[in-house]
Amino acid sequence: MVRCFLIHTVCPLSALGTGEARMLYSRLFGPDEGMLSDKGLTPEERRVLQKEKIAVVARQVRSAVALSREASGRPLVETVPGEEALALQEADGGVVRLRAGDPFSEEMSALWLGVQSLGFTLVCEPHENLLLAEGTLRNLTRHCLEHLHMLGQGSEVLLRSNRIDALLSRLLPHGQLLFLNHRFGQSLEKEVAAYMAK
Amino acid sequence: MYSHGSESLIKQAREIQESELQKFYSRLVKLLQGKEFGHETVDSLQRLHLILSASKYTRTLPPELQKRVLSLLSSPVEQLQVLSSAVLRETPPLSGQELNYNQENVSQLNSHAAALLLSQAGSRADLSSLCAQLLRSLESRSSEGPSHSLTHTLPILNTILTHCPQCLTEDHETLLSKKLVDWLRYASITQGGGASSGGFFTGPRSRQPAPIAELDGTVSGDFFTVLCVGQGFTDDQWMNVYSFSMLRHWLLTYHSVSNDNTTADTANRLQLSLSLSHSHSFSNDDRSEIDGSVVSMVSATSSSSRLLPPKERLREKAFQYCQRLIEQSDRKAHKRTDADLQKACLVEAVCILDCVCVEDASLVYRTFPCIKALFGRLSSDLSFARVMLPIAQFYLNHGEMAAVDCESVWNLVFGRFPAELFNDHFLAHELLRFLRLNLESLQLRVPQYTHSFPNLLKLLAWDSPAVVDDFVDLLPSLVTAGTAVELLHTLLDLPCLSATLVLQLRSACLPISEPGGRCLLSLDAFRNPSFRGLFLFLLRGEAGSGDTIDRLGTLHELLAEVADWPRVIQCAQTVPVLLHIFFNTVTTVADEKLLAHLVLVMLERSSLLLNIPKYIKEIHRVFSCHLLRLCKLHPSLVVDQSHELLEFAGATANVYSKEEIYTHVVWVLGEYLSVSCDSRCSVRLITSCFEALEAVLFEITSSAPPPGAVCPAPRVVTTLMSALAKLASRSHDLIPRVSLFLSKLRTVTRGGSVAWCSDEEDLVAIVTRGEELWSLLKAPGVAQSVLTPPPHVTTPQWHRDINVAMPLQLRALTNLTHSQ
């Protein structure tokens, strides 16, 4: 199971403190962990807790991306809309181990893909098939870049987030990683394209 | 990418005024009252979602709006369903919504509505009831044949299973096991809708559905799997994909659940052992039934493998499915994405086979030939490394039982993988996780493990920040009496290893004469045959070829320019943490002889480190801390190693270059060079120590620091004075010499400033300490009991009878007086 899919910034922003990341999209799958923890939290408290948890993940990924880029010393390749494939090819990726309790109650693996100033993150249960998760994350990222024109200057990621929801409901329904061969993929992509066309 | 526009949108959403918000709400309600929803409605809903989600605090919608949005969930327009679900997920649940759990038409819920139900489930009971409804809908559908709308049911069930496995009753498990068998093993083997283009003039005859194909294009001759392709897919083929995708988790979960009710499990096992003989002889019996598209549940009892109880039957089918996937993965896929999927399927298949073998050991013998063949086929191709890890797990779990030789598996996992694939983040993560999870059995069954640390540490040297957490967990298992010294050296040279790995990669991908690139001295050194041995030692794969090398200093000089490489610095930053873990562990496995050796290594290596000033300082700090701990634990270490410690403490240069560790060495000498710690401690030893320290103290307080050095830290001076006073208190002949020194010190500093101490306050503190010690030494008996207190003072053994224990009584009295 994938616990959540996040899109957030991974570069320093003047509006934020050092090490902070701005969350642009977040989708948690399944019931709320806090509801099952029997701590007697109110729905409001659970919501704050949930938002804090994903913020922790985003911050951890942000540091991981920064450290990994610093170590590799590769210059960032600037891409413009239309060069999504190149952007994806140049993206760096990695995994962050999230220890039990930090922030989820069980251990998790956060897979990330850094495309210029943005991070795309999948938080998976650690026994999950990471090879499949990696492929899914790449696929999702490509679709997001293309359908929300994320290489451009617009804010569609905020104003068209329903497109990401629709994407997820097909490529990662309820957080379920799917073994889709290219034919199954094509048939889902047709559905996605039809949705986006509206 | 992220723009100022986006930032200000988020700000606006967060800071929206209440009055403005209310206006927005009422406008939206008006929009939603209409019959047709246009672009404006969609846009407003999207903005509403942004406003709600941008803040971590909850906003509650007006009931009217909430109701309207809720009604969109069942709208025929998917975009409205999506938005409605997204908006409501950001709001607190309304009591009205709970009705949905009890609706009879759960099966008609669309995926987006179901997502909302899941995210707003308020209790386990909610989940249980949702689960029960979904399963009921699966059951009722079985007669009508599966439908496409069922596809999201399995992911939802899997989600519930993840969070709350107790939701499933025994009956549920049985039902789902049966359904999974159907979908996995008996999906149609002809292509689904739109299979043949047909065309206007072709008759119905030529419209016969085409058979499904393998990834290499050949016609498939066996049952349908996720590695089969066609022009289109039938619903049951989709269910096959969903079933396989959740299969492993299902097997894992219901294995763990069925362990809870052991009686049922034993019964199942009994039944299994009775029916096993059947399943062996008829393992291929299902082929006859594949020609039909879906085998109904009723007819499913005809052949002998159907005599198995549902769980065992699923296990058997999972086994067959995985065997087929492994076979199919050998086919040459036309598309790259399919080749990647084949790898992912191999990982999944091997994991599932491992899982069924853990549950039913009798399957081990049937599985091993296939796993062995797979290993043989892929082991030489490093691009399949990530498939090898589940295979290694299989060998580890079942190799002993099947009496299989695992040597070549471990050579790969501990040898080639870290040595050649250290720069693969994902492999590193999975490999280290594999080690963490199997630590106990690896230590027990794989002797190569502990000796492979030079190789494993390459993962850390390459990508320290990402894997340091894993090594925090793993390092204690690598510390043994046999490996401790070499491991300590290796950890200290980890930044060198990091640099060497960079050089290794550069050397491989850059031509000898790098045109235009910046010329790296270290790269030349790496390629120079006369230094080859040094680098080869760093890159060694196994422990045991010697603790360290002689020309370490040369190596550090060759690598001088790497000190500002980010990768090397990141690596250097992790070393202190690991050293702490190392020392904390080593005291539990080492005898005194080994600890004495480690003390010597610390003294020696304190001046033999890669020249990164911050790194050196940090390492000295760690050394100091653990030198103290080791000596506290085994005070006789100080007498044992007095020669080397004295040599170190007697060198004035160390005062300036290794202040931290020097101070601690002086302190342990003063503290533990005493008969009460070790009877071998002679007056001669105390005197020689005294003289060595006295000489240093005299030297540093009588002249300015050598050029390039700063003044000695006040702490060094006072520690030296205290050490001298302690030693003198144990050998009274020395008292006049200390007193003389201290009185001189007072005289000299009366002038106000001295060359060896720039800060006036510091100087005052030093002199005050000197005066205290001087006065103390005037009464030698008192001095001894203060400076070398007997053990019963430092580790008091109070009378343990709680009724009469003095401290306790005092505390009780204090409490009484304070409370009034």
UniProtKB/TrEMBL annotation, chain A:
Tree of life domain: Eukaryota
CC annotations in GO: AP-type membrane coat adaptor complex; cytosol; late endosome; lysosome
GO process annotations (BP): double-strand break repair via homologous recombination; endosomal transport
InterPro entries: AP-5_subunit_s1
PANTHER family: AP-5 COMPLEX SUBUNIT SIGMA-1
Protein name: Adaptor related protein complex 5 subunit sigma 1
Organism per entry: Dicentrarchus labrax
Species classification: Eukaryota, Metazoa, Chordata, Craniata, Vertebrata
Automatic annotation (TrEMBL), chain B:
InterPro entries documented for this protein: AP5Z1, AP5Z1_ARM, TPR_AP5Z1_C, TPR_AP5Z1_N
Record GO cellular component, one term: AP-5 adaptor complex
Start and end residues of each AP-5 complex subunit zeta-1 N-terminal TPR domain: 1-272
Domain AP-5 complex subunit zeta-1 C-terminal TPR: 470-816
Domain AP-5 complex subunit zeta-1 ARM repeats: 341-458
Pfam families in UniProt: SPG48, TPR_AP5Z1, TPR_AP5Z1_C
Protein name (database record): Adaptor related protein complex 5 subunit zeta 1
The species this protein was found in: Dicentrarchus labrax
